[in-house]
Each structure stands twice: as C-alpha cells, then as structure tokens.
Amino acid sequence: xxxxxxxxxxxxxxxxxxxxxxxxxxxxxxxxxxxxxxxxxxxxxxxxxxxxxxxxxxxxxxxxxxxxxxxxxxxxxxxxxxxxxxxxxxxxxxxxxxxxxxxxxxxxxxxxxxxxxxxxxxxxxxxxxxxxxxxxxxxxxxxxxxxxxxxxxxxxxxxxxxxxxxxxxxxxxxxxxxxxxxxxxxxxxxxxxxxxxxxxxxxxxxxxxxxxxxxxxxxxxxxx
Length: 224
Prior knowledge:
- By secondary structure, this protein is mostly helical.
- The protein has one domain (12-199): Arp2/3 complex 21 kDa subunit ARPC3.
- 62% of the residues lie in helices and 2% in strands.
- It has helices at residues 30-56, 77-86, 91-105, 113-131, 138-159, 166-198, 205-217, and strands at residues 12-13, 19-20.
- The chain has a two-stranded antiparallel ribbon with strand order 1-2.
- A hairpin with a 5-residue loop joins β1 and β2 (19-20).
- The radius of gyration is 19 Å and the shape is globular.
C-alpha cells in the first residue's frame, strides 16, 4: 500500500529536469491514489488478456520455449510506469501488486501465484526508484524495468523451469530481460512522456513541483 507518515525535504530537480518528489505532506493526495489505482486496474485487465495470449501462443514456441520470454515485458509495466508518474515511495509496489490482484480476480490461470509475482514485480522497481531518490529519468526507468525482470526471472526458474537445461535457462534470461528493458523500461518511459504531453498528469503534485522551477526561471516578456 502507499507509504504514509513520510516527511521529506523540499524538491530537488534531477539531472533531466524532472524533480525528485519530496512532499512536505504526510499523506498521499486523493488524486495520487486514484491515478495509481487507475494504472493498476487498467493493467490488471491488460494482464488478463495477455495471460490468454501467452497461453494461446505457447504452441508457437514448442521448438524453443525460452523464446517466449520476449513477450514478458508487458507484465512489468505498471510498477515502472507508476513510479515514473507518481514519484512517491510505494507507488511502484502498490501499482504492480494491485494489477496482479485484479488479474487474479479476473481469472488468471496462475491464480494467487500471480499476486506473488505482482509483489516481486513491484518491490524490485520500488528499490530502484528509492535508490534514485524517486527521480523520473530514462536511466531510472530502464533500471527499474530490468530489476522487475530479474525478480520475475528468479521466480520463473525456481517455480516453473527448474529442470531446463542451462543453455535454455540462459536463453530465457536473455529474452526475458531484453523484453523487460525494452517494453517495461523504454516503453514505460515513452508512455510516461506521452501522458505528460497530454496534460493529464498536471493535477499531480509531482508535476506541479516540476512546473514551479520552470516558471520561476522563465525569462520576463519584452518591455517588462
């Protein structure tokens, strides 16, 4: 769940101009909770569809099952995207876990195990965002996506593919982590930037903090 009772210092811009969200408020705003939940529920529905597609396309990978790891990145998006959008402690974990819960409630073929994956896929990028002080940067997005992929890879190899030959395990690691980097990392960053351009993120405190330094340093109009 979103962290409460956390008081941080004033906002500090990061190297790419997106601020470190350091709220003086102790609680999440209603807007932040709604946005995070919206991301989670939306991707929970996407997960349900993606689960069906994963099963339906399994036959296409019969000759070399590890290649199906190329489809993996979609499951890793909500944690990374929420971390970029909210820049709040707990956002990545909350979004990824709730998305998995929604997927399980909609009838995921993996049942409650999907929730275990959601927790891992939220905790891993959450750690990356914490280490980067919740900066919204491309490098942070890529690292967060990769971290979520590593967490998922560990679970998959332990729970589903422990008997695979080493070369298959290495190939699966390559395909899954590539998907994590491109889809969850780069894809989440592109989606974040697209949402920013539409203005739908403007009500969020993180965006208000981002706009304040820009407004303060804007040149005065001619004749002022």
